[in-house]
Amino acid sequence: MARTLLALKWPLLVCAIAAAIGTWLIWSLFPGAGISVIVPDDNTFEIAKPGRYTVWTQVEASSQGKLMTFVTGLPPGVTIVISNSDGTTIPLHSQWPTTHRHTARTIQIVIGDITFDSAGSYRIAVNGLHEKRALYLDQSDMRSFFVKAFIVMALPMVFLGCIAWAVVIYVTQRKRPNHAMERTADRGTLHF
Predict the structure, then answer these.
(1) Model pLDDT for residues 1-37, shown as the tens digit of each residue
(2) Residue 21 structural domain
């Protein structure tokens, strides 16, 4: 019995690794709370966790306790400048194709992504915009979203494969005779 359990270590290990990867991937698909700013007013905002952020424009947003509705997207010629406390501009990279995200509370359209190297206070200035818009920053990574989602959907196949692997090992271990037991039995038998 101990030999059979030892032989099952590899399927069990692969299942444990797949479970850990699946948990991490599912957790990473939900970025947590983001940062909302109303533009074109100059705004400062705090980044608590450095890293890559996606910048969205929102159709609906809440500002100072009021629900506001905005026109979808940004008009041509609008520039968005995000800078740190030293005044150094942080590059905002556009994303193409544009991604849309719909939830029960809001509709969002990707503008681009930006990487903050350190936590701290940042300033956003928008030029060429004459009516208010809501921008939203969060750590959702839309470039790898579909790859992560595909891997999460493939993980059940890994579990099924590990179960089949474990069954094959168990069946083959049961059918194989235990030669060590036979040798012990032969030595203990007296022949006259």
Answers:
(1) 566 667 788 888 888 898 888 888 777 766 667 888 8
(2) 1-31+145-158
